[in-house]
């Protein structure tokens, strides 16, 4: 069950951070976001305010390193592991996200704490969806990494805003006809497939 109240000594907290995730998704999946807001006991105004505060904290001259901002909001990560991406050494920090129990927020950081990437990934050991056809690609059921693996080779594309990505690939429908698809993701979670 999601926390209905952030701890009073936390300036932000996990519940409000989930509202930040939802704010970016509301443009694509307003009905799913409304359901999630009800689950969190929040409304659209609170969601917008949480997002405003998160963005303002990131731009503040007194802002701590970006990774520190996540720790301040979410506490200590459940995992903090070294990761090599190409020639770069970084750290992968992961936190649970109660709205999506099988997912984790993963933040990749450079030495010094600068954030390179932030997105939702499948929790270790959690079963992912079976992705074989276009019809299997349902909103909020799979991550960008899962779709890229299922329909390789996939081509990453720039999204319309920070924390948004698009992925271009070819996938069959249930009848076996192949389609060129561009999937849109927010915080790494599938939001929609524009008409293919």
Quick overview:
This protein is α+β, with helices and mostly antiparallel strands. The protein has helices at about 15-25, 30-40, 45-60, 65-75, 145-150, and strands at about 80-85, 90-95, 105-110, 115-120, 155-160, 165-170, 180-185, 190. Residues about 1-10 have low confidence and may be disordered.
What does this structure look like?
This protein is of the alpha+beta class and 196 residues long. The protein has three domains: 12-59, no CATH class; 66-122, Beta-lactamase Inhibitory Protein, Chain:B, domain 1; 134-195. The protein has helices at 14-25, 30-40, 44-59, 66-74, 144-150; strands spanning 79-85, 88-96, 103-109, 115-122, 155-158, 164-172, 178-186, 189-192. The strands form two sheets. Strands 1-2-3-4 form a four-stranded antiparallel β-sheet. Strands 5-6-7-8 form a four-stranded antiparallel β-sheet. A hairpin with a 5-residue loop joins β3 and β4 (115-122). α1 (14-25) packs antiparallel against α2 (30-40). It is globular and about 50 Å long. The termini are far apart. Residues 1-10 have low confidence and may be disordered.
